[in-house]
Amino acid sequence: MTDDPHVSGSPDRPLRILIGCDTFGPDVNGAAKFAEHLAAGMVERGHEVHVVAPGAERGPNVTRTEVHEGQKMTVHRLRSWRWRPHPWLRYALPWRIEANAARILDTVRPDVVHFQSHIVVGRGLARQAAKRGIRVIGTNHFMPENAMQFTPFIGPLHDMVVRALWRAAGRTFGIAAEVTTPTLKAAQYFEKCTDLDKVHAISCGLHVENYTADLTPRSENVVLFLGRVEAEKHIDELLRAVALLDDALAVTVEIIGDGEQRHALEKLAVELGLGERVHFAGYATDEYLRAQLTRASVFAMPSRAELQSIATMEAMASGLPVVGANAMALPHLIHDGENGYLYEPGDIEGFAERLRRILTMPHDERVALQRDSLRIVSGHDIRRTLDTFEDLYRGRPVTDPVVDTGVITVIERDAEAAG
């Protein structure tokens, strides 16, 4: 990582912040959600925020005022093309990104650039910002392994391309003064794959006050999944596990989200005899989403490659017990036996047993799991995340709140020395 000059001027003056994204609202995914939370939070704190992101439709470059999470910000939309193997992803034209980045940086003249991905937008902004002596912060939400399902690379080519993508990540993130990722496990994995070090573990954060917990007894058994309906989420394991549960439990499944796997999963639900017991809600309004989170009996997250899982945090903020795969960063959120249970990926019977345990336990035991979900997620309050990024933007020493046991463990790090 390079040593960039600290942001000049009064230490408390408002900053001009440029956030670079390969995915941003109206896209619905964890990286886009975090970027929206971050941008809106910084606007609310009085900073001037610019966002660079691909256009949501094919068209020329355009700069306009957009409203995200109730806050106005300037968004520079770049001409984009659809990535055909993917159901919705658009990308800015890579052969134009450095020219576009230079143009925007020279117009905006930001105090700091914070990129969210090294793929296209982040690469161009990082390179051009470094040439201009602008402080650069990078946050990684991307795992090349997840993206491979949308490419033609299989067999030996698969591993070769994954390694090449991690090398590319190392080159771009190596430009940044500071690098972050949402959890300690994700930071350790990122360091291993890129040979970078001193990566900060900073939660994506959540407005926990926006969610409502219901600690009263349930009159129905509803298992909820929230997220992209894609192969990497392994939602089929959830359906297969529910199919093993006793019919007397009358378990229903609510799946909120959409993606390329929806048709296959609808077909699987019928084959498993679940039929009308599985509801595919597709993309839903915030009001519907939060109502279902409050109503559900248990939240399920079978994904094996979560760098954090904002969806799981939303469920915890709604006071839900959680059953999830014992993989990647989920154990940071799901503390086995405290706020839910972990199962080994692929162990469908183990998954079903843990769901059954929650759905049949006495009310007081279930409430204990709910209260622990609320306790654990409280450490992921968005205000702590925004405080930490503000300090990084200004070049101040920061503390990484690493939440993995329900207790905030503080790791002191000198942001100056981390360069």
TrEMBL record:
InterPro entries: Glyco_trans_1, Glyco_trans_4-like_N, Glycosyltransferase_grp1. Residues 217-366 form the Glycosyl transferase family domain. Pfam families: Glyco_transf_4 (PF13439), Glycos_transf_1 (PF00534). One of its GO terms (molecular function) is glycosyltransferase activity. Keywords: Glycosyltransferase, Transferase. The keyword ATP-binding does not apply. GO terms for biological process: carbohydrate derivative biosynthetic process. Residues 28-209 form the Glycosyltransferase subfamily 4-like N-terminal domain. This is D-inositol 3-phosphate glycosyltransferase. The lineage of its organism: Bacteria, Bacillati, Actinomycetota, Actinomycetes, Micrococcales.
